[in-house]
Amino acid sequence: MTLLEIRNVTKRFGNFTAVNNVSIAVEAGEFFTLLGPSGCGKTTLLRMIAGFDAPDSGEILLDGKDIVGLPPERRPFHTVFQSYALFPHMTVAGNIGFPLKMAGKTPAEIKTRVAETLQEVELTPFAERYPHELSGGQKQRVAFARGLINQPRLLLLDEPLGALDEKLRENMQRELINLQAEAGVTFIYVTHAQNEALALSHRIAVMNQGKIEQIDEPSRIYNFPVNRFVADFIGKINMLEAKVSEVSAAHLTLTVSGLGEVMVPVKAHINTSDQGVFAVRPEQVRIVAQSPDSAVESQLLGKIKDFLYIGDVTTYIIELANGTLIEALLPNSVPDHAKLFDIGDSVVISWQEQSAQFLPD
Question: Which end of the chain is more exposed for a tag (fewer CB within 10 A), N or C?
Answer without folding.
Answer: N
